[in-house]
Amino acid sequence: MSTEEPNVVWALEGYSKGDGSLVSESPISREQVILLRAVIDPDPDDPWMIFCYLVPADRWLAVDRILSCGESDPNLDYLTSAYAAS
Hints:
The two termini are about 25 Å apart. The chain has one domain (about 10-85): Chitinase A, domain 3 (Roll). It is α+β, with helices and mostly antiparallel strands. It has helices at about 30-40, 60-65; strands at about 10-15, 20-30, 55, 75-85. The mean pLDDT is about 90. Strands 2-1-4-3 form a 4-stranded antiparallel beta sheet. The chain has 2 helices and 4 strands; from the N terminus they run ββαβαβ.
């Protein structure tokens, strides 16, 4: 992993399984991204999790321990996202 922090903002996003609309968004810190790598298994060529990654339901408890995001909503699909900081 690069020792340089990219100019990126990360988030955990919840999308409706019904219509795909964005329903929730919670920030993820740089330190949390480092911890999430062990839970979500990002692409080896993506050390800063710049791509979007689906959060598998069977790993939600581990994600919650890192992000303190509470119970998942069964009507949502959760993904990590990243975008350029403004």
